Amino acid sequence: MKQIRIGLVGAGVVGSGLLQLLEKNKHIVQNRNNLDIQLTAVATRTPKRAQPLTSLPITSDVLSVTKRSDVDIVVELIGGTTTAYDVVLSALKNKKSVITANKALLSEKGEELFRIAKENGVELGYEAAVAGSIPIIRTLRDGLASCEFEVICGILNGTTNFILSQMESENWDYSTALKKAQELGFAEADPTFDVEGIDAAHKISLLSSLAFQEKVSFSDLQVEGISKLQSVDISASKNLGYRIKLLGISKRSSAGILTKVHPTLVPLNHPLANVMKESNAVFYKTVEAGTGMITGKGAGGLPTASAVLSDLIYYSSRFGVAGSIPENNIFPKSKKSPEKENEARYYLRFSTLDKPGVLAEIAAILGKNGISIASVQQKESEKEPVNVIVVTHSAKEGNFETSISEIDQMSSIIKEKTVAIRLLENL
Amino acid sequence: MKQIRIGLVGAGVVGSGLLQLLEKNKHIVQNRNNLDIQLTAVATRTPKRAQPLTSLPITSDVLSVTKRSDVDIVVELIGGTTTAYDVVLSALKNKKSVITANKALLSEKGEELFRIAKENGVELGYEAAVAGSIPIIRTLRDGLASCEFEVICGILNGTTNFILSQMESENWDYSTALKKAQELGFAEADPTFDVEGIDAAHKISLLSSLAFQEKVSFSDLQVEGISKLQSVDISASKNLGYRIKLLGISKRSSAGILTKVHPTLVPLNHPLANVMKESNAVFYKTVEAGTGMITGKGAGGLPTASAVLSDLIYYSSRFGVAGSIPENNIFPKSKKSPEKENEARYYLRFSTLDKPGVLAEIAAILGKNGISIASVQQKESEKEPVNVIVVTHSAKEGNFETSISEIDQMSSIIKEKTVAIRLLENL
Predict the structure, then answer these.
(1) What's the ipTM?
(2) How many CB pairs under 8 A join A and B?
(3) Are strands A222-223 and A256-267 parallel, antiparallel or unpaired?
């Protein structure tokens, strides 16, 4: 039986989960993979959680683990981009493969870290960094290795999907749903990273680079979160046959690659529409295999730890052996497809004054900008603002920008800024 | 760049697809995987389809390919269990890894073939054998390598899923939907293999063995197809909030492993219910990662060929190299969990005579056998038989068998044999 010695850095929710699994699933790893994974070092700044789960001494000197001769693979689970960066860098330079769940680190410093891994002939595995227990990295890299990707898009943040699900099922407004998510531990005290789409943006940039084999920089991403959504948008969308999801979307066209994170109206019969609560999902479209989707638990200690352990098994079994081909993570920079030229359909909610001629003025501006209306909905209302909800046909995003900016300046008819949410493109 | 030389045996729909992809996606394979896959031999008994797709000479001597010194991996795509068996056996004995899409062969002769592969230090890859383009083998083996499986179940046959989808959407009876499937090339002239669940049974036996690491023999499977379903069952299920799917199901309990193929009432809000037409899907439940699902195209030339090529890339890149751990495909025989002890809920359609007391007699027999009724539906009807539709609570399968057999013998009230379809267990 092959023996691999690992050093764990970080013993929070996921790290503790891994400590549990290393013990509980030892027989699975041994029997199924003919592999004996031995934990030889643990470092954490919060030893309390780890202590009951290991008999090893626990050090707070996180860098020491990366230099030990009895460690073959370092598992980095501290998160963040400062200490974690030092740990991963040091491990790679000491010719140790690294397994990490740190999407922020890879999204921001991946280019450098993957290069250093390559220079040192080691691997940097990150299955657990995207979509928790869903094995999307292996799916893109191995399962669909032969496929030419056209689109990859997904529900990549469990917190926002939970909030959106609750807003719909409980008819809550955004802040009530956020508060509930915080109480249940699905959202941080400062939820910005999740609710403003930054976490999803880190993840789609990683998936996109892997699918298209061109580096999609985080800074090239157009990112929009869910914090401005109101319950009226959730319910009006539902009545129109859609469910709002925060999607990370990346698509290739002849103009380049366009990668975005934004709330999206997904048709109720699309598989992404039915991924609820804290679940994650990744949908793909390829030339050869058509469309497909993979869904599962996107967060949580044990689910994410299971992805870390699967990654450990994978690299332990198959890599660092003579004759194998190292994984490629270094891609040429992608050409960004211009956003304004992108064709999209929109849900537009105009908050208008209650007076004659409003709809005519809005329709005139849309028409002037080449935007054709697919449906209009205005319900009788006793108080202002009156919601006029328009679903459009496809037009260039730049034209929407121009129209909305023009309409929002008309204080004679508009009371609050227009809410504009894209519809899912035809996938 | 690593060079791998392959010999292709069989150039039907999938084989021709592979010939196209080897050409069209050569750059993807090279750039993404640093791998040059060279076709060095083609054998087929129907050379006409292959001729325009390769400049190589085409031989009809299929065994010759397995013996050539310029072939590293043999791709077997002829199907069936006779010639294909000879080809795979000969290749393995000549120490060549084999990639196959042949579920029937592996289901029937897998035990022997995997053993011979192991003895010869080569690999036998079969990603394309289950669920077409869906990378379920890689997902079970690598992506979820650390997980303890509780249930694996899926829509594994595109033909039957297409027929069921059409029966619902077009309100067709079974024979009309089958005829349409045959016209569109989704069903064979003799559809037995698909519609009686045999193909799905081959596939679930392979998945089950891999997930539970215990061999589930084809002969241990309880297999029931869709040919007896009537459109009234499709529509009545829908009214009750379910959609009928042909599922392959395998679940582990303390009593052993129970593996079955049968039509199943799936709640409409379950992800499996929304996998329509010729798509396939595999749903899993694990201790660590909870539930998840992977879906995509389950058949077709290019989708299946893409799975063959992904498998080729995988084994070419990572295997047959010093230090790697060979994949394990040899499992101890599973203990079969007794069917009659399994708890299930049922949809029962009794075809009764139109006379008083019928429901009372049926209910009495069910009650006597410990089967409790959850709902009853009987619509006014002008002609016999009158359909009495009962959905039950959970009870032992053996009790259902006893009850139905007793009821069906009561010619005083029953006109046709009772239709009994299981509900999806709580997953």
Answers:
(1) 0.93
(2) 199
(3) parallel
- Helix intervals (H) in A34-153: 47-50, 83-93, 103-119, 136-138
Q: Is A183 annotated as a binding residue?
A: no
Specify the length of chain A in residues: 427
Residue among B26, B93, B203, B285 flagged as catalytic = B203
Contact residues, chain B, for A132 at CB < 8 Å? 289
Rounded CA separation A328/A213 (Å):
9
Strand partners, A73: A6, A97
Q: Which of A24, A179, A203, A238 is catalytic?
A: A203
For residue B368, report the phi and psi dihedrals to the nearest 5 degrees: -60, -30
A212-248 pLDDT, tens digit per residue, is: 999 988 888 999 999 999 999 999 999 999 999 999 9
- What confidence tens digit (pLDDT) does each residue in B256-312 have? 999 999 999 999 989 999 999 999 999 999 999 999 999 999 988 999 999 999 999
β-pair partners for A265: A244, A423
Nearest to A321 among B133, B307, B322 (CB): B322
- Sequence length of chain B is 427
Tokens (6 digits) for B270:
């379950």
Q: Does B301 touch chain A (CB under 8 A)?
A: no
Q: Does B148 touch chain A (CB under 8 A)?
A: yes
> Across the interface, do A21 and B146 touch by the CB < 8 Å criterion?
yes
**Domains of chain A: residue spans and CATH:** 2-132+301-318 (3.40.50.720), 136-297 (3.30.360.10), 342-423 (3.30.70.260)
In the annotation, is A203 catalytic?
A: yes
